[in-house]
UniProtKB/TrEMBL annotation:
Protein name as catalogued: Palmitoyltransferase
EC number, as in UniProt: 2.3.1.225
UniProt keyword Protein biosynthesis present: no
Record remark: domains: The DHHC domain is required for palmitoyltransferase activity.
Organism annotation: Haliaeetus albicilla (White-tailed sea-eagle)
InterPro entries the record matches: Palmitoyltrfase_DHHC, PFA4/ZDH16/20/ERF2-like
Top-level taxon: Eukaryota
TM stretches of this protein: 151-172, 192-216
Gene behind the chain: Zdhhc3_0
Length: 219
């Protein structure tokens, strides 16, 4: 049911269908660049910490993808529709009748609790709705906000980790030593590795700054 709802949202929001794909492509490229072009460099490859960095970065990526999937597929807190579109009394219980902050959504034709808002993309009211996020193609609401915040946290950690590994590969003593240059380990002498490191660093800085701002706003 959650997957079907997510597919329905994709059909209504082309941007929401594209942004999650860009997220997976960006994360996949970062993982590839770290494993294939950053860690094999002399400054990191000869270190006993190299296997740890590979395992730790992949663990962060796994947690990032898991939280993103949960945020995408989870029900954000959609307010249920009444059995009929005219009579609202079947949705209001005695406890709800005492809540003066309950309002009526003229689009859903249903009662909604305080801090619930109507999403113009999902066409439903969502409890404690923060916003509709195209990066998860879902609303950020009462039931999935924690997964969204966790996704932002792990994305920021992954960006910082990747940027740190690139700088360590460039500035490490092995990479700058004559022995490292003779072995072809200096990234400046390898155009392919240099290009991947630059792209990874720019990606990490851009997305790291972006998710940090959004994470701060959410917290």
């Amino acid at each position: 049911a959650a997957a079907a709802a997510a597919a329905g949202r994709c059909g209504r929001d082309p941007c929401g269908a594209l942004c999650p794909l860009l997220t997976y492509l960006g994360v996949g490229y970062a993982d590839y660049a770290v494993l294939a072009h950053v860690l094999p460099q002399p400054a990191l490859h000869g270190s006993p910490w190299c296997p740890f960095h590979a395992a730790a970065f992949n663990l962060i990526v796994l947690l990032l993808l898991a939280c993103h999937a949960r945020a995408v597929l989870a029900d954000p807190g959609v307010v249920p529709l009444p059995d009929t579109a005219i009579d609202f009394s079947d949705l209001r219980t005695p406890s709800q009748q005492s809540q003066e902050d309950w309002t009526v959504c003229d689009r859903c034709e249903a009662y909604r609790p305080p801090r619930a808002h109507h999403c113009r993309i999902c066409h439903r009211c969502v409890r404690r709705m923060d916003h509709h996020c195209p990066w998860i193609n879902n609303c950020v609401g009462e039931l999935n906000q924690k997964y969204f915040i966790q996704f932002l946290f792990y994305a920021g950690v992954a960006s910082l980790y990747a940027a740190g590994l690139v700088l360590a590969a460039w500035l490490g003593p092995v990479g700058r030593s004559p022995a490292g240059m003779a072995a072809g380990g200096d990234v400046a002498n390898n155009r392919v590795q240099t290009a991947h490191c630059i792209i990874l660093l720019l990606e990490s800085l851009f997305f790291g700054a972006f998710v940090t701002v959004v994470f701060y706003d959410q917290v």
